[in-house]
Design a protein that fits this description.
Largest sheet: 4 strands, antiparallel
CATH topology of the largest domain: Tetrahydropterin Synthase, Chain A
Function: Controls the rotational direction of flagella during chemotaxis.
Pfam families: FliL (PF03748)
Main location: membrane
Number of domains: 2
Keywords: Cell inner membrane, Cell membrane, Cell projection, Chemotaxis, Cilium, Flagellar rotation, Flagellum, Membrane, Transmembrane, Transmembrane helix
Number of strands: 4
Radius of gyration: 35 Å
Order of helices and strands: HHEEEHHHHE
Shape: elongated
Number of helices: 6
Protein name: Flagellar protein FliL
Length: 160
């Protein structure tokens, strides 16, 4: 009878050891994934990288200094402004670069017609951005498609 008691005690000890090892492994795996902040099924979702946005294309322009229109015809009302154009593609940047004197001329004419009091507030500045986009959307050469300007960024703006 004593022989039957010893083997069953050994079997119970073996099962306890096996269960303890399985429990430790399961806790280790759960702890690892908990530490990483994700579950095993979520790993595939996280590994897919978000799409990389296209590189923006900018065309910085030299600063402009123009006299502004004002009711008293004061010649001291001056606008010093730096602009950078955000363009949709490299072809548009090349076109603007090739016709840079025409682009600058259009902008100088537009800027010299501005009213100093209007440019003093944010709405006036936003209206100026819209007008610049409109002026530059006209074809630079007859028969060419209309160029697109995505955005106009101010890099300097001094109203005196």
């Amino acid at each position: 009878m004593s022989q039957n008691v010893l083997p069953s005690a050994r079997k119970q000890t073996k099962w306890k050891v096996v269960l303890a090892v399985i429990t430790l492994v399961a806790c280790g795996v759960a702890g690892y994934y908990g530490w990483q902040g994700r579950l095993p099924g979520e790993a595939a979702k996280i590994t897919s990288a978000p799409p990389v946005p296209p590189t923006p294309i900018f065309l910085p322009l030299d600063t402009f200094t123009v006299n502004l229109v004002n009711p008293t015809n004061d010649p001291d009302r001056v606008l010093y402004i730096g602009l950078t154009l955000r363009l949709p593609d490299e072809a548009t940047r090349k076109e603007f670069n090739d016709f840079l004197p025409a682009v600058r001329s259009r902008l100088l004419l537009l800027l010299s017609r501005q009213d100093a009091d209007t440019l003093a507030n944010d709405q006036g500045k936003q209206r100026l951005v819209d007008q610049i986009k409109q002026v530059l959307s006209e074809p630079l050469v007859n028969g060419q498609p209309r160029p697109v300007v995505n955005d106009v960024l101010f890099t300097a703006f001094i109203l005196r």
